[in-house]
Specification:
Number of helices: 30
Largest sheet: 10 strands, mixed
Number of strands: 33
CATH topology of one domain: Isoleucyl-tRNA Synthetase, domain 2
Low-confidence stretches: none
Radius of gyration: 39 Å
Length: about 950
RNA sequence: GGGCCUGUAGCUCAGUUGGUUAGAGCACUGUGUUGAUAACGCAGGGGUCACAGGUUCGAGUCCCGUCAGGCCCA
């Protein structure tokens, strides 16, 4: 017989290495084969609800790290909540309408103009659903457990109907109105363009300087004063309605010697203006700040009916021109904004094809906008207002498809008024909890400063605006009609709008006084996609029975303060007066190791699926809890490698615990807390603290605190301390004896608690361990509940005592290390330790009531009063002497003993070991040892 | 240009209401084990807390500015 056969060495088939890339997909297949998602929900049916509402990713393209972080974070929350007494469903969603999908179709060779709208939309729908399918496959590979078979998709008829109803309610409250706003307009394709459809080229333009005669100078400027403005788009002078100044810039009133008129230019641009306009000799007769000239008026260069208003805005610069900007609200975004603030109309004098309209005046009507420069100059010269003409080269937007330049042009748009209920929204923001807290400020400022919401888009792929027009052009926004449309969409989907005429869409027998002949037309614009996803509280939370409105949590990237957090809030407050969420969690963006953003051109991107294939998705999931998700997060292969080291540590520790509890049956072998050995009681208490801290961190969405606490516990408390001393107990002591069972009791609880606490983060690993726990009843670890925090009496004092003792242990380790350096000992068991203790230290040791020699892992320990110290070294207040242990080594426990052979039958073993052998391995008496 | 945010050891993070020699884990170096072994233990080196001012008896912590980086706007 071998001595080794009388030891209880750990035994498990749980592999040291996870082979994660291979085993994860197999494990996930098992989850779905057993419908683990619904299984857990069914188990929680009667529990309080916790509802995390998934923000819909856009159904286009491969998933990237941002997607992965988002879905994994949500999975962690949902899994945790389901394991802590909540019914927490997770319904994933997709955002499917919008321009990028239309662009994909174009790229694939489809021509939108060669087919009816409904046909184009069918192509878009098929494409979107294909993307949803692909992304869903990839999201599942992340280990995210959700209702993947029944996601919400914004193109689903029931979603579209719910969205129409949100619009209907807002219209009913008078929040929807029609206005005009400049958009990128391509005359060559006769349509509005999105930012993404524009490319910039350098072109040479004619820029004009001209003067505007002051009409009402408000007592500051007289009528012989002229405001000199600058424009690079001469045709827009036809729609010029104002002149914008920087409020804090200084403006000079100049009297040139060679002119009897006075002119106004920015003081900072006076010198170059003088040169440009040929003022060889001039005098500055006054200066005024822009804000002092506010609301002065000037005469339009040639249109006697137009009085231009002087306005102030911050977009004015002194980079070029004169510091006075001619303002045509119908032809520019800045112009529109400032004009709106001053109540000016957004007049448009160019038609859809780029030709001047009658409003441009008889000299220009019918001319192409780009051909009117000479006429405009001529008109200015005849009015004696022309000052200078220059050629400039600048970057100008072009239609990416026709390669022709575009213009800004106001077109009719539908708006949702934010002004009317802005204060309600702000009040609701105050009711919401934000993680991190600054999110409240950020969202608040955005809502406070934003303008009305332009909800119409001149595109095809989206939910139509359910608006009709009577014969005289009156828009019909009627609650009953909109509900009628919602019902049609619910049944047929929104393509119905494009497949049928206005008459067919209206309720049978509908009449309207504005349509004496009973004829109607329908709106052709669609809704902004943000209105789609912004309606999800109605399209999903109010539509699916397992969900609740408002939701407990929305969690997205910080770009969504402008996006989904924003649009959802507006529609929800507009309709119901409440925010759609109680908590908002926002996350930063993933950066490379140097803190720079990831981009394909820099080659610093990391694909989540590649990580899954090479290292396992558990590594990426673990990464998400090592970083501060409230700010930007660094990722690189080196960082992931570091994370995988942590994973290995976790895995190996679980493995050791498993290996040493295989012969332990918790039902029959457990030792009660009060009967545990002192060191086990201590560790039990430490574990309880861990559970407390980790649960609290989970409850407040502090995942990196979860990780830090767990990894420190595993490294410091478990691996370096408890498991290290454990080997002298668990391997050596009697297999069913009290000391061993005591420790195994704590091992087993540690193992179970760790597996559960880790599960939301590492579900694959947790489930793998679970397969090695035959005494647990749940078929999956995920069906178990989180460990509860116990109220252990006297825990605080116990921890304080041991905390003190650990300082002694540190000192002992240093002493032993010194002895090792001096080649007095090799391993700790070769040492005989002598402590010379103060009264206080002695009291501490006694109060522990513990086997101190065992915990310090030496073969022999002696304790004497400090005043008897001899050959002792002071290690941080502890007097310690290390000597070589006396006696000889037992081949079985490898410790030094002075009583080897006390039992003559076993000359190489100590008395204690001999007793264990006689009781548990009596065959050794016959066989002897090799 | 504006709103919001970030910047502590090579890496990822802690640093409570400003108060003793700034901490942890990983990595690194040395070393011990070889009964957690493509593992484990012990010890050690490593930081002018982005930079420059200011408030204070005292600042990683508060204030101002600069630089670098990020999200969203213009």
């Amino acid at each position: 017989m071998k001595y080794k056969d009388t030891l209880n060495l750990g035994k498990t088939k749980f592999p040291m290495r996870g082979s994660l890339p291979k085993t994860e997909p197999e494990r996930q297949a098992k989850w779905y084969a057993n419908d683990l998602y619904h299984e857990r929900l069914t188990q929680n049916e009667t529990k309080p609800h916790f509802n995390l509402h998934d923000g819909p990713p856009y159904a286009n393209g491969n998933i990237h790290l941002g997607h992965a972080l988002n879905k994994i974070s949500k999975d962690i929350i949902v899994r945790y909540k389901n394991m802590t007494g909540f019914y927490a469903p997770y319904v994933p969603g997709w955002d499917t309408h919008g321009l990028p999908i239309e662009q994909q179709l174009t790229k694939a060779g489809h021509d939108r103009k060669s087919m009816p709208k409904y046909a184009w939309r069918n192509l878009a729908r098929d494409f979107a659903l294909e993307q949803v399918k692909k992304q869903r496959q990839d999201f599942k590979r992340l280990g995210v457990l959700a209702d993947w078979d029944k996601p919400y998709i914004t193109l689903q008829p029931e979603f579209e109907a719910a969205q129409i109803r949100v619009f209907g309610d807002m219209a009913d409250k008078g929040y929807i109105f029609k206005g005009a706003k400049p958009v990128y307009w391509s005359w060559s394709s006769e349509s509005a363009l999105a930012e993404a459809e524009i490319e910039y080229h350098d072109i040479e333009s004619t820029s004009l300087f001209y003067a505007n005669r002051v009409k009402d100078g408000k007592g500051i400027l007289d009528n012989n004063t002229y405001l000199i403005v600058w424009t690079t788009t001469p045709f827009t002078i036809t729609a010029s309605r104002g002149i914008t100044l920087g409020p804090d810039f200084e403006y000079a009133v100049v009297q040139p010697a060679n002119d009897d008129r006075k002119f106004v230019v920015a003081a900072g641009l006076l010198a170059e203006s003088a040169e440009r306009f040929g003022w060889n000799d001039y005098e500055v007769v006054a200066t005024h700040l822009g804000k002092e000239l506010d609301r002065i008026t000037a005469q339009h260069p040639w249109d006697q009916n137009v009085e231009e208003l002087v306005m102030n805005a911050d977009h004015v610069t002194l980079d070029s021109g004169t510091g006075l900007v001619h303002t045509a609200p119908g032809f520019g975004e800045d112009d529109y904004n400032v004009g709106k603030a001053y109540g000016l109309p957004a007049d448009v004098t160019v038609d859809a094809k780029g030709f001047m309209t009658s409003e441009a005046g008889p000299d220009l009507e019918g001319k192409f906008y780009d051909d009117v420069v000479d006429i405009v100059i001529d008109k200015l010269k005849r009015a004696n207002l022309w000052m200078a003409t220059e050629k400039i080269t600048h970057s100008y937007p072009f239609d990416w498809r026709t390669k022709k330049p575009i213009i800004w042009r106001a077109v009719p748009q539908w708006f949702a008024s934010v002004d009317q209920f802005r204060q309600d929204i702000l009040d609701q923001i105050d009711q919401v909890n934000f993680y991190p807290e600054w999110g409240k400020k950020r969202l608040y400022n955005m809502i406070r400063d934003r303008g009305d919401w332009v909800i119409s888009r001149q595109r095809v792929w989206g939910v139509p605006l359910p608006i009709f027009y009577a014969e005289d052009g009156t828009a019909i926004l009627d609650r009953d009609i909109i509900e009628h449309i919602a019902q049609l969409f619910e049944k047929h989907g929104s393509n119905y709008w494009f497949e049928h005429s206005a008459q067919e869409l209206l309720p049978e027998g509908y009449t309207n006084e504005h349509s004496p002949n009973g004829e109607f037309t329908k709106e052709e614009d669609i809704m902004d996609v943000w209105f789609d996803s912004g309606s999800s509280w109605n399209g999903v939370l109010n539509t699916r029975s397992e969900l609740d409105y408002p939701a407990d949590v929305y969690l997205e990237g910080s770009d969504q303060y402008r996006g989904w957090f924003n649009s959802s809030l507006i529609t929800s407050v507009a309709v119901n007066g409440v925010a759609p969420y109680k908590n908002v969690i926002s996350q930063g963006f993933t950066m490379d190791q140097n803190g720079n953003k990831m981009s394909k051109s820099l080659g610093n991107t990391i694909s989540p699926l590649e990580v899954a294939d090479k290292m396992g998705i558990e590594i990426l999931r673990l990464w998400t809890v090592t970083v501060d998700t409230s700010a930007d997060m660094p990722v690189s292969n080196d960082i992931l490698k570091q994370v995988s080291e942590s994973y290995r540590k976790i895995r190996n520790t679980l493995r050791f615990l498993l290996a040493n509890t295989t012969d332990f049956n918790p039902e029959t072998d457990s030792v009660a807390y009060d009967d545990l050995a002192a060191h086990d009681q201590y560790f039990y208490t430490l574990l309880n603290e861990l559970v407390k801290d980790v649960r609290q961190a989970y409850d407040t969405y502090q995942f990196k605190a979860v990780f830090n606490r767990l990894i420190n516990f595993i490294n410091v408390d478990l691996s370096a301390f408890y498991l290290d001393i454990a080997k002298d107990v668990v391997y050596v002591e009697a297999p069913t004896g009290h000391v061993r069972r005591s420790m195994q009791t704590v091992f087993y609880k540690t193992l179970l608690d760790l597996v559960k606490l880790l599960l939301p983060i590492l579900p694959h690993t947790a489930e793998e361990v679970w397969e090695y726990l035959p005494h647990e009843n749940e078929a999956f670890a995920y069906l178990a509940d989180m460990p509860e925090v116990e109220n252990l009496t006297g825990a605080e004092e116990l921890l304080a005592r041991w905390h003190q003792f650990m300082k002694l242990r540190d000192s002992v380790n240093k002493a032993l290390e010194q002895a090792r350096v001096n080649e007095l000992i090799g391993k700790n068991s070769e040492a005989a330790l002598t402590l010379f203790v103060t009264d206080e230290q002695e009291a501490l040791l006694n109060s522990l009531n513990a086997d101190v020699r065992l915990i310090l892992m030496t073969s022999q320990l002696h304790v004497y009063p400090a005043n008897q110290a001899e050959n002792a070294t002071d290690y941080d207040g502890f007097l310690i002497n290390v000597a070589h242990a006396k006696g000889a080594v037992s081949p079985r426990d490898r410790m030094y003993h002075e009583d080897l052979g006390a039992d003559p039958a076993f000359p190489e073993l100590s008395k204690h070991e001999a007793e264990i052998i006689r009781e548990f391995y009596p065959e050794a008496l016959e066989e002897g040892f090799e």
